[in-house]
Amino acid sequence: IKAMACRPWVSIGDHDHNDDDPGFFNMICSRRMIPNSSARRLCSQPSLIFERFSAVSMSSSSSPVQPIVELREYDLSVKDVKNYLKLTTEAADLRLYLMPLRMFSLPETGGKLHVATHAYYYEGGYAERGKRRATMENNLEWKKYVKNARPCMLSQKSNIFVEAPLVGTVEGVCGLKGIAHFPTQGNDCILEIRRYQLKLGYDTVPKFLSLYGGGLTSKLAAPGTDPTTSLVTLLYTEVGSLNEVIEIWRHGDGTGAMERSRHAARNAPEWRSAIAEIADLAVSFTSTIHKPTTFSPLG
Is the predicted pLDDT of residue 185 greater than 80, yes or no? Predict the structure, then answer.
């Protein structure tokens, strides 16, 4: 509950740290995770936070809830990109307060540019997403932000994903659930978003995940892999463009780290074998380099 007081926008259970560790709270504050002075004061009143947000996090349903990840992509007008980023940065604390933001970035190369790309982790599934969005849409400050920012957008896209079973079970693959576990090493962070569009079929995604999981340990442990490289998550579509799989890699020391890690992976035999079989399942594959914004939790 103490952690909830400093992270009122995430659900209970979004951490498994030592609540008495001051380093955890320093990390949260250093990443601008405290939305405002009022929220800071609530750190000494955890019961208030618990009462406010327990309805979302502690469902009365006895059936298990599947956490979901929403990936939103907004095409921006070239002439309005700077204004959009200014407005969005100014409203960042409000977004973090209202929504379980995990990543906010823009592409630098590898595809379409000027696409605001942001991901949200809903531990409580669709029900939590509905409640949070309803709260957000009724927030007067948020309405003001949207009114000013929407003219900068040409189009909006939203897809729902779930994390692959290997996330959180393979060492080093932290997933999007816990901000406290996001990697932070490196001085020039980039995010590499790798997208596979797979063939149609009910068994295509399970086959992909099985092959990928079988070779991943070999890739991660390959000699020469840059120490600032980490696989953050592996996602597959629940709603949207079906049979799409996305990898999100973080390279703390930029493109140099990415290149060193790619070279190392080519010498991992199990990974090479897995990729050879995955190629038969894929229709297309893209790799895009993103730069996280200053307020992105993952960055």
Answer: yes
Beta bridge partners of 121: 69
**Sign of the four-CA dihedral 23, 26, 30, 33:** positive
| Residue 16: partners with Cβ closer than 8 Å, 6 or more residues away | 178
CA distance linking residue 118 with residue 108, whole number of Å:
15
Helix (H, G, I), strand (E, B) or coil at 122: strand
d(CA 45, CA 280): 55
pTM: 0.81
Using CA atoms, how far apart are residues 175 and 110, in angstroms rounded to an integer? 24
269 token code pair: 């035999």
Count of other CB atoms within 10 angstroms of residue 52:
12
Backbone conformation region of residue 179, classed left if phi is above 0, alpha if psi is from -120 to 50, else beta: alpha
Whether the CB-CB separation of 186 and 251 falls below 8 Å is answered with yes
Region 88-94 average pLDDT:
98
Q: Are 170 and 84 in contact (CB under 8 A)?
A: no
Q: Which two tokens stand for residue 258?
A: 């990415």
Most confident range, picked from 3-12, 17-26, 41-50, 56-65: 56-65
Tokens of 14: 């979004």
Which pairs with CB-CB distance under 8 Å and at least 24 residues apart come from 32-38? 32/92, 32/93, 32/96, 32/294, 32/295, 33/6, 33/7, 33/96, 33/179, 33/297, 34/6, 34/93, 35/8, 35/9, 35/93, 35/94, 35/96, 35/97, 36/93, 36/97
Q: 26 burial class (0-12, 13-18, 19+ CB within 10 angstroms)?
A: exposed
